Amino acid sequence: MTHPALEPEIRPATPADEADISLVTASAFGQEGEARLVDELRSCGALVLELVAVDRDGRVVGHVAFSRVTGAGAGHRLAISCLAPVSVSPDRQRGGVGSALIRAGITALREQGEDLVLVLGPPAYYPCFGFDAELAKKVAAPYAGAAFQALALTAAARAALPIEVTFATPFEAFE
Ligand SMILES: CC(C)(COP(=O)(O)OP(=O)(O)OC[C@H]1O[C@@H](n2cnc3c(N)ncnc32)[C@H](O)[C@@H]1OP(=O)(O)O)[C@@H](O)C(=O)NCCC(=O)NCCS
Asked: Is the CB of 85 under 6 A from ligand 1?
């Protein structure tokens, strides 16, 4: 039998969720920087998709943000986004919430016609969603290395690589 509390609903974030999203993000990372990054990405209009995981009692227990990435050269026709940050409340981590958010996000981006998704995160976590560090080597960005991973959602994305990309401005100030 499944436990209802272990199956949060995944839905698009609304303005009413913003304070809860800040709390979840800050508690997941143990600092304020990522919560500020989400606010800045939202206020500059860079967010392509924002999802929350909500418990039956209405509590927001997880959040994922995808922001616009700009491709140069052959990449300028592609819709490219970046997954960051993804946060799950510390008391709900390792229960599948993060994976559910990421999977739902990728599905929604595919439906929206997004071509390519990038992420900078643990190389042990993201490959199970299809992210690939080898593919990301064909994406010239301020980031490189095993943590920088890419997921092509369309043939157009694969055909356009290699490309150069620029992330939304709030990432420049973020360490
Ligand atoms: C990373 C995070 C979003 C994952 O969400 P989650 O709900 O805890 O993850 P899930 O339950 O869906 O998946 C758990 C699996 O993911 C993997 N995993 C989770 N966090 C990981 C990490 N930091 N590094 C490597 N693997 C990780 C593990 O394989 C884990 O399986 P296990 O419990 O059997 O070892 C969440 O742990 C979190 O908010 N962490 C703090 C903030 C953070 O680091 N965000 C990501 C920055 S890119």
From this structure: yes
